[in-house]
Amino acid sequence: WASASAGVLALVFSLTGCSGGQQSTLDAVGPGARRTEGLWWLFFGISMGIFVEVMALLGWALWRRRRSRVRIKDGDAVGFISALGVVVPLLILILVYGVGLRDLNALAAPDDEPTVNVDVVGHRWWWEIHYPDRPQAVTANEIHIPVGESVRIRLTTADVQHSFWVPQLMPKTDLIAGKVNSTWLRADRPGRYRGQCAEYCGQQHAFMALLVIAESRPQFDSWLAGLVPPTDEPLTDAEQRGRAVFARSACATCHTVRGTSATATVGPDLTNVGGRWSLGAGAAPNDPGHLGGWIVNSQTIKPGNAMPPQPVAPGDLPDLIAYLRSLG
Ligand code: CUA
């Protein structure tokens, strides 16, 4: 029945838009998610076995009743019900419980010592990311990790409860106010793994996505090094004008760009905003057009987010976009 059930699954996935590949527990890329995937297939196999058995018994009962016209007397069914209705389910539940406990225990910590620490703070609706071993290494909505190494993640929230979930790497861990929870990640192969807040946290819960980027050790080190120092690369004239617009507008009252006078922490740190995968935690692609739209009125892209519309003069907007694109 394995091939038949795979066919049913393919049909279900095609109907629900769940394609496998991106953001799927059934495409595990690390030891954490592989545990969940194994459990999923175990539960699925047991459920399919029970379904087939119940349907077979139902068919048999209908067929027999028609043929024999014998009425079942009270007491006849006691042994049958005791075996299939009590003993077998109990054995299955004990098995599933045991396997669940084994996996829960295995997920508590990686079997090697983590080489990287990441602190994550949940906000409505974005992720603040710190690398505590490197002071000032701050970004938002994306976590770079070295491939094949375990990474310790510490989680807390600045407002309501959220849940950190990167299905291809690890099951969910909640972010609870006043508490620091921890989990870990390890990716066995390089790639970009989408994650998602998995605890309803308000209007834009769906656009509280993040990206985990697993890359080689040298790539990771150079990305991390690039987070810290202010870029000394010379700015073009437009970028310089944009920097001045940024400094005198409301931008700098909420955001930080390290190496400049903007040091506010209300919104995401923008020091490497030009290199990030998205705007608004997955709400829009990070390209010049969407960036302009986001600055002028992000409420049209992600209604309810904390950033009010910005009255930037139309003549200043291209310079401001050029400056922000130059960061990172
Ligand atoms: Cu944060 Cu849902």
Automatic annotation (TrEMBL):
Superkingdom field: Bacteria
Catalytic reactions on record: 4 Fe(II)-[cytochrome c] + O2 + 8 H(+)(in) = 4 Fe(III)-[cytochrome c] + 2 H2O + 4 H(+)(out)
Family: Belongs to the cytochrome c oxidase subunit 2 family.
Keywords: Copper, Electron transport, Heme, Iron, Membrane, Metal-binding, Respiratory chain, Translocase, Transmembrane, Transmembrane helix, Transport
Gene assigned in the entry: coxB
Membrane topology qualifier: Multi-pass membrane protein
InterPro entries associated with the record: CcO_II, CcO_II-like_C, Copper_CuA, Cupredoxin, CuRO_CcO_Caa3_II, Cyt_c-like_dom, Cyt_c-like_dom_sf, Cyt_c_oxidase_su2
PROSITE patterns xref list: COX2, COX2_CUA, CYTC, PROKAR_LIPOPROTEIN
Cell compartments where the protein resides: Membrane
EC number: 7.1.1.9
Enzyme class (EC, first level): translocase
Record-given protein name: cytochrome-c oxidase
Domain Cytochrome c residues, every copy: 237-328
Transmembrane segments: 38-63, 75-99
The protein's role, per its UniProt record: Subunits I and II form the functional core of the enzyme complex. Electrons originating in cytochrome c are transferred via heme a and Cu(A) to the binuclear center formed by heme a3 and Cu(B).
